[in-house]
Amino acid sequence: MQNLLSGASHETLPDSFIFPAEQRPPASAAAVALPVIDLSGPRDEVRRAVLEAGKELGFFQVVNHGVPEQVVRDMEACCEEFFRLPAEDKAAFYSEDTSKPNRLFTSTTYGTGGERYWRDCLRLACGFPVAADARDAWPDKPDGLREAAERFVASTRRLNLELLRLLCEGVGLRADYFEGDLSAGDVVVNVNHYPPCPDPARTLGLPPHCDRNLITLLLQGSVAGLQVSYRGDWIRVQPVPGAFVVNFGHQLEIATNGLLKSIEHRAVASAAVPRTSVATFIMPTDDCLVAPAAELAGGGDKPPPRYRAVTFRDFMKVYKTVGARRESVEKAFKI
Length: 335
Hints:
Helices cover 27% and strands 19% of the residues. It is of the alpha+beta class. The protein has one domain: Jelly Rolls (Sandwich). Helix 1 (43-56) links the parallel strand 1 (36-38) and strand 2. The longest helix is centred in the middle third of the chain and has 27 residues, at 145-171. The radius of gyration is 19 Å and the shape is globular. InterPro entries: DIOX_N (IPR026992), IPNS-like_FE2OG_OXY (IPR044861), IPNS-like_sf (IPR027443), Oxoglu/Fe-dep_dioxygenase_dom (IPR005123), Plant_2OG-oxidoreductases (IPR050295).
């Protein structure tokens, strides 16, 4: 088993983790913050706030979201404990096979440069409802991880679908437009762990990328590290207690004909403290044909379709080939 970053002492930054300076510009000092939306407010106000934030930044944070506090605490505690386990307890789950739905991996290379990024990741996947065989494929240590992950998947998937309904109402689609095949693929949970880094200014936890899925919910914890591209700059996302960060994936951008956009983001490491975040990704089924909604493209006063229709399976083949940068994906799928 290759040594995980979280299981070693790091006094110096290995050369393989050093990104060229032009690929790691510092974040802006500008006081730009993601909107924080209280989902318990009047529905009309919430819908308007979600849509405005989505159009302006493609990212926002939500509070009073309905995910029970105990579900969040249990997931955070189990995930942090998982990365503290001895290497031998994690070895059986380690794999560099990207086709495996459930695996532990580390220091993946990104793009064509060959640089490795400063992250360990536990990836869990399942259909929904979570079947027993899917749950049993997850790590059995620490105690309670499987149960915590199952409750977390159910709660975060429910929140994601509610956010999609709000977006549908805001853009003029029927409320259940994204239910069915567009959101019935595997739920994927990435538990990202960024150990303390000896030289965080010269590396990246995750390089700039756009999400491949429909919608993403991120529990980013109490340590800052997420940065979002905004008007040619990078803005730091400050953690908000009890909040989830929401962002849109390429499938939502295609389906809304570019009205809502998948925005580049990255993660940076810290020299002082570890950071653990948990992302829930909602996916279409592999055979789902994703295309601009007829209500938003073509005919009358509607703009022409900006993206070609594509199955999610074929989208992923291209995405893995061209890379996760926004410009590359747009070039591949825009009409």
